[in-house]
Amino acid sequence: AAKFSSITPLKLVFEKPIVCKKNDIAVILKPESTTIRILGSGKIL
């Protein structure tokens, strides 16, 4: 089983356009996929 040192809660945002604040972590999902695929995550500069 995977072990995590820390878990950060995610906030799901459905508004468009997506508004991001500095230092937020954005996780990009593929909604058209039948299984959720995470494309990646990155910190907003």
Provide mean pLDDT, rounded: 75
Low-confidence stretches: none
Note the total helix count. 0
Tell me the overall shape: flat
* Assembly context of the chains: single chain
Strand order of the largest sheet: 1-2
User: Over the alpha carbons, how many angstroms does the gyration radius reach?
Assistant: 13 Å
Q: Per DSSP, what share of the residues sits in E-state strands of 2 or more residues?
A: 15-25%
Proportion of residues in helical segments: under 10%
**Given the helix and strand composition, which structural class is it?**
mainly beta
Distance between the amino and carboxyl termini: 33 Å
Instruction: Let me know the largest β-sheet.
Output: 2 strands, antiparallel
Number of strands: 2
Output the helix-strand order. Answer: EE
